[in-house]
Task: structure prediction
Amino acid sequence: MKKEKKENSGKLKIIPLGGLEQIGMNITAFEYEDSIIVVDCGLSFPEDDMYGIDLVIPDITYLKDNIDKVKGFFITHGHEDHIGAIPYVLREINVPIYSTKLTNGIIEHKLREHNMLTKVKRKVVKYGQHINLGCFRVEFIKTNHSIQDAAALAIYSPAGIIVHTGDFKVDYTPVFGDAIDLQRFGEIGRKGVLALMCDSTNAERPGFTMSEKTVGKTFDEIFADNKNHRIIIATFASNVDRVQQIINTAYKNGRKVVVEGRSMVNIIGIASELGYISIPDNTLIDIEELKRYPDEQTVIITTGSQGEAMAALSRMASGVHKKVTIKPNDTIVLSSNPIPGNEKAVSRIINELSMKGANVIFQDVHVSGHACQEEIKLIYSLVKPKYAIPVHGEYRHLIAQAKVAEELGIPKENIFLLSSGDVLELNDEAAAVTGRVHTGAIMVDGLGVGDVGNIVLRDRQHLAEDGIIIVVLTLEGGSGQVLAGPDIVSRGFVYVRGAEGLMDDAKHLLDDTMQHCMDKGITDWGKIKTEIKDSLGDFVWKETKRRPMIMPIIMEV
Amino acid sequence: MKKEKKENSGKLKIIPLGGLEQIGMNITAFEYEDSIIVVDCGLSFPEDDMYGIDLVIPDITYLKDNIDKVKGFFITHGHEDHIGAIPYVLREINVPIYSTKLTNGIIEHKLREHNMLTKVKRKVVKYGQHINLGCFRVEFIKTNHSIQDAAALAIYSPAGIIVHTGDFKVDYTPVFGDAIDLQRFGEIGRKGVLALMCDSTNAERPGFTMSEKTVGKTFDEIFADNKNHRIIIATFASNVDRVQQIINTAYKNGRKVVVEGRSMVNIIGIASELGYISIPDNTLIDIEELKRYPDEQTVIITTGSQGEAMAALSRMASGVHKKVTIKPNDTIVLSSNPIPGNEKAVSRIINELSMKGANVIFQDVHVSGHACQEEIKLIYSLVKPKYAIPVHGEYRHLIAQAKVAEELGIPKENIFLLSSGDVLELNDEAAAVTGRVHTGAIMVDGLGVGDVGNIVLRDRQHLAEDGIIIVVLTLEGGSGQVLAGPDIVSRGFVYVRGAEGLMDDAKHLLDDTMQHCMDKGITDWGKIKTEIKDSLGDFVWKETKRRPMIMPIIMEV
Result:
């Protein structure tokens, strides 16, 4: 009854709680009356100025405030920027998680690591299956991506159908399973789609992303060219198809394969158990068995293609890997492109490996998992949405997709470049951003979730730039006379050359400052500290052109 | 006499003091008996983990130890990685500097900023001119690069001729002046060249770097497409030809030009004064005059194409530039590619400008200033050196050039991949690395040169990651009784949530620790500090999984 009444006037709210204006931390709420469903629950990695932070998760205050409405999470695929926040968020909002089989396997592994496996309900969904939750119905549609079992979602709401692509590419010849279900996109499009939320990652790139299979051909060539060498290939841990292709080529060439790196071993284990990778008998060997085979009969598949400092390839490159020592005859393949921000780390690895005499191959051994402009046009042309909502990207990527959408004839006013926190209300008659909800990035540092705030970060930045000078002094309780100090200790502040003289001068200066306080009858500790900070700060700036943090500590006996 | 004796047996030493295994800090000594000449004197920019460091200069201990031999510096061109250390190095080794006119103009400007203009002798050299210094003769040869007046050097030594390309590309149609003097490379090659030291920056790239002129055509198209918009173009301050082409296109389109950003204003000023740029009358206007012209009749050329936080474009993007406010109709061109490491900063700028509604063009509006593989092959084929010494690059780039050299028939044993500090001794009969000299990177932080050492950097890194906890206590001189404290203060360490309880617990723990010291009769301050560090460190790790720096300070009254 209620539903009927709202049929034409009700509006759907789309509320991204993260993932816009950045790549990472994808999480979007869909709200209609008393139902909320959430798509994805990802983390992001800390920015360069987030000193000491391990990872960043979305602030889900809005969901907690509406906890009675929240029906479940739908996860499009198993990458960290789509599942990484699950152990943190599901601790606070315990609703079921719906995902495809491999995605669910990866989520289960993650929950197990956090001792939460029994606490969170999970449902495995097949492509084509529809899930009814609240007033929503959600259908999973097969797509292709750099991880298997990726899904687009058709979200049927009383206000209309939303198609969310998830992360996708169009691969007509995938390594495993089927190509993206373009027919279904077309069928749903024919029904009439209210809005398309489409992956923007590669929207700046013209053309079409190549099939994953093309990388297999490249591996065949590399193996043929390097018959007398050990081959070590680094790639993304979660790209099971890539690993499958390396194993296929290794098998054809009679080589044994070692998988190295914790995250890769984990994912290959899950994929293997669930039937997403097929490994010929006697092909995979343990790393301990490596020495029993001649180099030219082995392949090592490893993590660390992004130059991550703790990953296996980094440890090999810097000569601290316990099991693998790089030799001058090794052929090392980086089957990846550097993610923006990782360029220098990747370059460091290439340099280190080259210095050990290895032949490092890093050009044209990778294809992206995201759709380029022609694929984006294809999806728009099948879905033919009324509204376009580019997602999954920094603003530059969103606007690049917006331009593509405009070219395809979608009116500019029907294209929405949302920010995280925007509330987009829409139905067939109108769409507009009508409000904002609280969102944010919660920093995780060690065991602490959200306890590192901006003040702590700012202090860390200050300490990192210029170090700290600590001034301690002991005052007599009654008289306020200086009993000991002021003493000066510094850390992270220059002291190699001439600094001892500098510190002596500083100490004399502080003696004068204290004398000045005494003469003026200044006894308030706050005021004394300010005097110390000001006089020492000016002195240090004049002498060194630096501004270390100055921290006076007063004790009383 | 001496010379005659050595004619056939004497060996030239080539000693790179920087610039190898990195891009930056180029400086190479050439030594023959009692003569040393030095090519270039550059700085490098700090790595990510060099917190608080402004710039890095080479350690020239070897030159100081051999100061009587050092005859002069030859500078190939005016980029910071070739001239930036001059004000620091010439303070210690005051010998003449030889360079072409524009390079000298830029060096003079730098010396003036450091109040050293009258203290350093400079000689302007023309292409084709030969300079005799000690037992060396040095000829300057015209090349092309992303700054005008770049030179290769032919270094005539008693042991043979060395050709050093400097940074170069082959531009058959340069914007200003002549193309690279390929004939002269051929002539010198015909005489017989002992070694070629060739730019490796682009040695990984196949093909040929496009002419600077092609960017001019791109500007013509961009101006034609954006007739109704203000155009803002960011590029490298020192690329005078690029600026010239923007001015040419602006003039053709009847637009006024503003140059913005201190370093660009400086270089354009120098170039203009020395006749390296020709600006039509009434084209250049002051930034204050901008408001007198309609947007579509203006162009702003600005610094900040690398996303540098303090540069003009960054300030425009973040809305804090005093004179230029970005408007939704602006067309903004990044005429540059991000230098590795700057990708995220550049992306941030693109995002910020796009969010202000500007149309940002950043693809294919730039050409490199460095030779790709086909140009490297051309130079090798003209010079036909006996030995190949790839220079100017990280190891990956050096080895890429080594592969090119090998393809061209240079025997592997005649190709030297040097490290900074290697002493390569060579003559027509043999070449080998025979030793090493001390080299290093000296960090400049504020006014301090070399006073920030590894300990300070490591402390800064520790402080940046986890912050600091300071424990202060006052002891009675005779008894060693605790009179005040232990008190705890922290900076950069978590304290937003639950941390007060944590600090209370820590204080109790430290009371216990001090009691324990007292009971055990521990009075040695060093031991007390160790007890404090250990017990507090364990406690904090257990509670938070973090390891802040712990710094006990004891006072005595």
Notes: Residues 1-7 of chain B have pLDDT under 50 and may be disordered. The CA atoms of residues 151 and 557 of chain B lie 68 Å apart. Chain B touches chain A through 69 residues (CB under 8 Å). The domain at 213-361 of chain B is CATH 3.40.50.10710 (Rossmann fold).
